Amino acid sequence: MLVRSLPGLLLRCSLLLLVVATVLSGCRGDGTADRTALRQAMLNDIGDRVILPAHDQAASDAAALVIALEALEAAPSAATLDAAQAAWLTMAKSWRHVAAFNLRGPVKRGLYHNRINSWPTRPDRLEEAIADARAKDVAFVQTKGSTTRGLPAIEYLIFDASGDSAVLDSLAGPNGESRRALARAIAQDVAGQSADLVQAWSPNGGDALGTFIAADTEGRFLRSSVSRLVNELSMLAEDLRYNQLGAPLGISRDPNDPRSTPDPMAVEAPYAGATVDLLRAQLVGMRTLVTANDGVGLDDYLASLDAQIDGQSMGEALLANLDALDAALAAIPGSMRDALAQDPEAVQSAYDEAVNLLRLVKTDVAGWLGISITFSDNDGD
Amino acid sequence: MAHVDTAPAPPSPTSIRRRLLSADADALVLAVFRIGFGAVMALSMLRFLLLGWVHTLYVASTFRFTYFGFGWVPMPPAWAIYALVLGALVFALGIAIGKAYRWMLLGFFLCFTYIELLDATLYLNHYYLVTALCLLLFVLPLNADLVVGRVARTVPRWTIWALRLQVGLVYFYAGIAKLNADWLVEAMPLRIWLAARGGLPVIGPLLDLDWMPWAMSWAGATFDLSIAFLLAYRPTRKAAYALAVAFHGATYVLFNIGIFPWMMMLVALVFFEADEFRALGDRLCRFTRPRATAAQHGIHSVSMPVRLPRAAQLIAALLLAFQLAFPLRHGLYPGNHLWTEEGLRFAWHVMVVEKTGHTDFHVTHPATGRSWVIPPDDLTPEQEKQLSVQPDFIWQYAQHVEQQFVAAGYDDVEVRAEAYVSFNGRRSQPLIDPAVDLTEAPRTLGSRSWILPHPAFSP
Fold first, then answer.
1. Candidates A22, A34, A367; nearest CB to B422
2. What one-character DSSP code corresponds to residue B451?
3. B5 touches chain A (CB under 8 A)
């Protein structure tokens, strides 16, 4: 009777299943890596080797920017302006290294990223702030919205597309003192926000890093650490394609947008002419996320999953795509602004690589990691 | 002395038919099903309200995808959607209670199905199962027992088997859907899904074992294909139900599939016989009236049987015939239906493929020579996720884009889709022919030529 032999039948079926599974998995030739340990190592390495040092560096560069702008405020000259501009560019690049880490939790809630680098800035609002008679200090800056503070606002105040003499004229002009003071006050705000952000990440402060790593074992996979990282990577790739390269090329996303030709002023950092430098810095930031600065990175985790694309490991494909985009950006002659007017094909090549990158991250990488690119945690039951 | 054979004669087809159609059975099975179904539906609606999904899934969306032939269903205001969910909750409780059973069922069916039809993004197999069950339950006397103040009655045996067949079909077709090379040989998509759940406490490391995806793929397919038969066969029933609880419990822990596991655990109870419920009830709680099985107490002779019109048999037969045939319609379409999604819905293809995609729409206005790239960024995350892998949604959104351009003063634009989809870990491939202007393509239930075949499944 089947009823008597059911336990035996189930046992035999289970053994058969095990044999089939072992044979089939053996045919795949997978390793026996402990993926949980590997994933934890990856998250720790990304935290210790990438996130914390990158934020420390950004905070340090923000403090240096304050010193440079204090010097410019005290004595506007070509030398102090050059120093301030160099400090701004250093900080803007450093910021690109942390841009990928506006992660859910204390960091996103703190709005640090919005306050430090909301782009584009609003020149009209900045001119209103300059004309405001109140003292230019951090408290004054903090009464302003995100488009009137942060690095893009400082860029507007200390760079000019027509050259440094125009900047010096404005800094020494009728509202020059107020303009210089505002630049310094915004920098102080940026430095304060950057220091707060370091605290938010620090295990001794808000411990965003601990929250991020703990999410790996919380069991809510849509909120998992890897999901958060790849979502951010995807958002950066989208930003590159649509905003940083697509919009300047005149690739409009809005039927009501009158632009249909390249728009040099639609680039980020148009006054400093530093668009290409900043985009390349952003790629460095994305690359460190993948490699964990030669630690256990996303590439190693993808390799443990045997994730391949056309015979190449997914991590290598991702790095190759980042390299191809970087090479395309490096090939843009002069500034992005000039290239859009004189050699838009060069910018188009970079755009095409950004399209490839977005596709790779959003479909192939996300598909292999079993995560849906989503910006909410609704399971849609 | 002549030899007299006292062994019972084997049942003939005629006697089986008579037993099924005419014989009366204890209605407790149907009543337990009714209470379980009503309770789990009420819980589902409560969960919907408490998690704020009316807002995030309906009110917050500015666009909606429709089912073929149901585009006319109007989107009600927010308060009305809340009222519909609340109504469904109350009616579900009414179903469980059993008074005015068919009115309660009608109310629940209308509220639930209306909500379901509002946005095809939110299609889920178990929501469709709810609708399919409601239709069948209309003709079944689920209120013949366990209704306060009413005497229990017996019901035609076929009513119980109709329900068992409907539930069994869900499992069986889910098993058939798993009989493909990706599932059985490559252990896809479980290799991806289990690795993504490796962080789960306690069981996470188990999921990382190399052979686990293969074991679970084969076990899952075997379970789906056999569980209905094991549940229907009395000697294996209890062990099979324990297996079903374990299986659905595991899917609850591993995947975000909401109430589906709980619902299936409850509906699978329909395979038990009334005496098994009574024995369990007597043994565990002694909450039921102390009565023995229907056969032992001759309940047929003392209980008033529920008599259903022949039309009820006919309707149930038609509904079940539809449920037998409709899930197989994907065989009428060319290509791999898991890739093309043609014939995939309403066919119990439960969690058999991992697809991740990205779609942009390229708009050109021939009159001015202008062009645009439109990402679908006015959608909810769930809508964007579904659009990226479903050709029908891509087609619908293309029409939406065209309307936006008409509103902006561009008549007669061309809209093409740049849609790439990764299928079970394969390199992403174009899903839609990028040369086809989707505004010129008709919406059809037939095969759509603008869906590109996947290279891995092309001859």
1. A367
2. B
3. no
Query: Inter-chain contact B372–A246, Cβ cutoff 8 Å?
Result: no
Query: pLDDT digit string (tens) for A306-334?
Result: 898 888 999 999 999 999 999 999 999 88
CB A190, CB A62: distance < 8 Å: yes
Q: What is the mean pLDDT of residues A289-295?
A: 94
Encoded amino acid at A344, one letter = P
- Is A22 close to B211, i.e. CB distance below 8 A? yes
Residue A29 has pLDDT above 60, yes or no: no
Mean pLDDT on B209-217: 92
E-state strands within A4-52: none
Distance CA B20, CA A363 (A): 52
Provide the 3-class DSSP secondary structure of residue B430.
strand
Q: Which residues of B touch A7 (CB under 8 A)?
A: 239
Please classify residue A217 by burial: count the beta carbons closer than 10 Å to its beta carbon, then call 0-12 exposed, 13-18 middle and 19+ buried: middle
Determine contact: A371 vs chain B, CB below 8 A. Answer: yes
- Residue B89 half-sphere exposure, CB side, CA atoms within 13 Å? 14
Among B174, B143, B170, B177, smallest CA distance to B320 is for B170
Contacts of B403 (CB under 8 A, 6+ apart): none
User: Would you say A335 and A215 are in contact if contact means Cβ atoms under 8 Å apart?
Assistant: no
Q: How confident is the model at residue B297 (pLDDT cuts 50, 70, 90)?
A: very low
CB contact under 8 A, B199 and A368: no
Q: What ipTM does this complex have?
A: 0.85
Contacts of B197 in chain A (CB under 8 A): 221, 370
Of the given ranges (A8-22, A74-88, B120-134, B212-226), which has the lowest mean pLDDT? A8-22
Nearest to A366 among B197, B356, B405 (CB): B356
Using pLDDT thresholds of 50, 70 and 90, give the confidence band for residue B2.
very low
**N-to-C CA span, chain A:** 42
> Side-chain half-sphere of A93: how many Cα atoms within 13 Å?
12
Kindly write down the DSSP assignment for every residue of A289-326, as one continuous string.
HHHTTTSS-HHHHHHHTT-EETTEEHHHHHHHHHHHHH
- E-strand stretches of B366-454: 370-374, 414-423, 429-430
CA distance B401 to B364: 11
pTM value is 0.89
Single-letter code of the amino acid located at B10: P
Mean pLDDT across B350-376: 93
A interface mutation test: which of B115, B124, B422 has the most A CBs within 10 A?
B422
Tokens standing for residue A56: 């420390």
Could you give the 3-state DSSP secondary structure of residue B363? strand
- Rounded to an integer, what distance in angstroms lies between the CA atom of residue B364 and that of residue B439? 12
Question: Which residue do the tokens 């004229």 mark?
Answer: A169
Residue A337: count other Cβ atoms within 10 Å of its Cβ.
23
Of B247, B222, B242, residue with least CA distance to B231: B242
If DSSP codes are grouped into helix, strand and coil, which group holds residue A33?
coil
Closest-CA residue of B relative to A309 is B427
